[in-house]
Amino acid sequence: MEKKALSWTELRVGLVVIASLVILAVTILYIGSTGGSPWAPTYHVKALMSDVNGLKEGAPVRVGGVEVGTVTKVDFAADASGMVEVEMRLDRRVKPRITTQSTVTLGAMGLLGEKAVDITPSSKGVPIEDGGLLAGVAEDPFKGLLSDASDSTTHLKKILSRMDAGEGTIGKALRDEELYSRMVDVSVRLQQVMNKLESPSGPLGRLVNDQEMARQLASAVRGIDSIVARVDQGKGNLGILSKDEELATGLKSLTRSLNDIAAQLQRGEGSAGKLLTDDALYRRLDSVSTRLDALVTKVEKGEGTAGRIVQDPALYENLNAAAKDLRGLIGDVRRDPRKYLRVKLSVF
After folding, report:
1. What is the DSSP letter of 125?
2. How do residues 157-192 score in pLDDT, each as one tens digit?
3. Is 152 left (phi over 0), alpha (psi -120 to 50) or beta?
4. Strands 132-136 and 66-76, how do they pair?
């Protein structure tokens, strides 16, 4: 019994190993195939190129960006032209897309990845038969890309060297200690401003952090919105002013009248216009004001009758007493007019 169990175990192990080998073989065939089934029908084409730039056997072949085959051989051409011959195995289903108008270029699986062969599909021309020759481009675009990248790297090195030498704005920022100190000072001030904004003690901080102030501002905005709505609805004086066409017409008429008056004043028409533009009238008014000023000065100094009345207390008291006596006399006359008025009639 033990011998049978051991034989069955060995058989199972052998079956598992055989199945693993079969799966491995299928996987290898699939990876090395043209991107489809490893049993799919294939055909071969060739291409002559001046420089393959490190292309190796097993590199993928793409048609329109789709992987459809692999490179089977890379070697110098049999003739003495110095060209490199690249043999490729392709999926037969892309045969109608590869014609005499198609071209072969070198590509890559990434910027620094392995090389690949790119074939441009074309519906024109005659399809390439098995073992046929494709036209290769004279210049490798990938090499040009690397050359451009090399030029860009050289330019970048020059920029970095200038920055390291302290040239330019960035170089000065890296080398100039004074500029660095200013930048540090600016950053410190900005930090202080941010601290004030975060602190509720200052006005800016209150504006940012005080919820009560925010509610008041929101309430003020709502009040402004209500006022604007009332004005838009024609309510209140402002609303009437904005909606009443008759009032607007009257204001326009008033404005035109004021413009006409201003024009007349500028032309010197009327009394006010002459007052503004007539130099003779201005000189007369100036002379009158000068005389009035001199008269007031004399009155203040007590010169003349009016000056004495204003400045002499005795004269003021005499005039005041005379006025009182006059008022008393008028009162007596009103009370007993016969005392002062006697009429005598004589008949001759």
Report:
1. S
2. 888 877 777 777 777 766 777 777 788 888 888 888
3. alpha
4. unpaired
pLDDT at 86: 92
SS3 category, 269: coil
The answer to whether residues 58 and 74 touch, using CB atoms and an 8 Å cutoff, is: no
Q: Is 68 exposed, middle or buried (0-12, 13-18, 19+ CB in 10 A)?
A: buried
Sequence-separated (6 or more) residues with CB below 8 Å from residue 289: none
* Contact between 73 and 87 (Cβ < 8 Å): yes
For the CA atoms of the chain, what is the radius of gyration? 58
DSSP 127: B
State the residue for tokens 């002559």.
48
- Token pair 């004399």: residue: 298
DSSP state of 97: G
Element (H, E) at 79: none
**Does pTM surpass 0.85?**
no
Cα dihedral sign for 297, 303, 307, 312?
A: positive
Q: Which two tokens stand for residue 141?
A: 């675009």
Could you give the 3-state DSSP secondary structure of residue 239?
helix
Strands 115-119 and 42-49: unpaired
Supply angle C-alpha 77, 79, 80, rounded to 5. Answer: 100
CA 100 to CA 127: how far, in whole Å? Answer: 6
Q: Pull the structure tokens for residue 330.
A: 């008028």
Place of tokens 């199972």: 12
Would the CA dihedral through 98, 103, 109, 110 be positive or negative?
negative
Please give the structure tokens belonging to residue 9: 């175990």
Residue 81 phi, psi dihedral angles, 5° rounding: -75, -15
